[in-house]
Design brief:
By secondary structure, the protein is an alpha/beta fold. The protein is 15% helix and 26% strand. A six-stranded mixed β-sheet has the order 12-13-11-14-15-16, sandwiched between helices. Strands 5-1-10-7-8 form a five-stranded mixed β-sheet. It has a three-stranded mixed β-sheet with strand order 6-4-9, with no helix packed on it. The radius of gyration is 29 Å and the shape is rod-shaped.
Length: 328
């Protein structure tokens, strides 16, 4: 299932051409010169992005990179307008951003069934009935339909989570996610167990909830492509709070926090403005004396939470802290 997660695709889109207007002249048994009665051509089909809350990946678009809408139909006699070309709907997960080839954002899907027109279809041509006048009573020409538009687009998926988990590989992020939510991420005792982002819903008091996102671990030098690099950091750009997870068996707790913060700053300095919570995971390995020693490695104004996803230690306090920050 993890290999099916795709959060970045390039696609080619082409909207439909407008149908040509008709230059028909009315003829009937007793009306030899009935005049122009050509109808308008139909509009070409649009290319439309539509949000689908059931989707979680852009995988389908990886195998259908060429998307073309239907052309409009030509106008007919008796001023009949041609049918519009069928619009082509491209369904994407909520949280998808569309960019043109220059990298300019064209639109963003933030809710289910929201629609964005990527490319408008060509306008249908006018029939010759529009060009009749007192000085030109038998126009024998009509407008051709306007051509559709085409272009390449980049679609990026940024998961919509309230809290983003940040930490080195094996910091216990996936274990914490499974303890706080119903999510079932892969958990193992080797680095880079998590290869794709995971989302989980944390149930809180009075039937309330918030969403937490776990991304693959960051290591020093991610900005230079080490580890998984910055491949998945786009997913925490939307998070309101960053939860830094530092394991109890780390060699230098404060230094590890600074490395993580530095890598985030290199990726996007705006991430520094987000609220942060620092938690020491795997605290079932510690006693009160060691906890106090760890506190001393951080500046005095830093608030640390010692948690254990295995024993459940301070998980309620962690949820309280996150909820409080989310609703300040």
């Amino acid at each position: 299932m993890q290999s099916n997660f795709v959060d970045y695709v390039k696609i080619f889109c082409k909207s439909g051409h407008g149908g040509a207007g008709s230059a028909h002249l009315h003829r009937a048994k007793y009306i030899p010169k009935g005049g122009p009665d050509g109808g308008d051509g139909g509009r070409g089909g649009h290319i439309i992005l539509r949000g689908n809350a059931q989707l979680w990946t852009l995988l389908a678009l990886k195998y259908s990179k060429h998307n073309k809408a239907e052309n409009g139909k030509p106008g007919g006699k008796q001023e009949l307008t041609g049918a519009n070309g069928a619009d082509l709907y491209i369904e994407v997960p909520v949280g998808t951003i569309a960019k043109d080839e220059s990298g300019t954002i064209v639109g963003e899907i933030t809710k289910d069934k929201e629609e964005i027109i990527l490319l408008e279809g060509g306008k249908g041509g006018l029939g010759n009935s529009h060009f009749k006048s007192s000085t030109n009573q038998t126009p024998r020409y009509a407008q051709p339909g306007l051509p559709g538009k085409e272009g390449n687009f980049i679609l990026e998926l940024k998961l919509l989570g309230d809290v983003g988990l940040v930490g080195f590989p094996n910091a216990g992020k996936s274990t914490l996610l499974s303890a706080l939510t119903s999510a079932k991420p892969k958990i193992a005792d080797y680095a880079f167990t998590t290869l794709v982002p995971n989302l989980g819903i944390v149930k809180y008091r009075d039937f309330q909830s918030f969403v937490i996102a776990d991304i693959p671990g960051i290591i020093e030098g991610a900005s230079e492509g080490k580890g998984l690099g910055y491949k998945f950091l786009r997913h925490i750009e939307r998070n309101s709070i960053l939860l830094f997870l530092i394991p109890a068996d780390a060699k230098d707790y404060y230094q590890e926090y600074k490395i993580l913060l530095n890598e985030l700053n290199k990726y996007n300095p705006e991430l520094n403005d987000k609220d942060r919570v620092i938690a020491i995971s795997k605290s079932d390995l510690l006693d009160k004396e060691l906890e106090e020693e760890i506190r001393k490695t951080f500046p005095e104004n830093f608030k640390l939470l010692f948690i254990s996803a295995v024993t459940g230690e301070n998980l309620t306090q962690l949820k309280d802290e996150l909820w409080k920050l989310l609703h300040q």
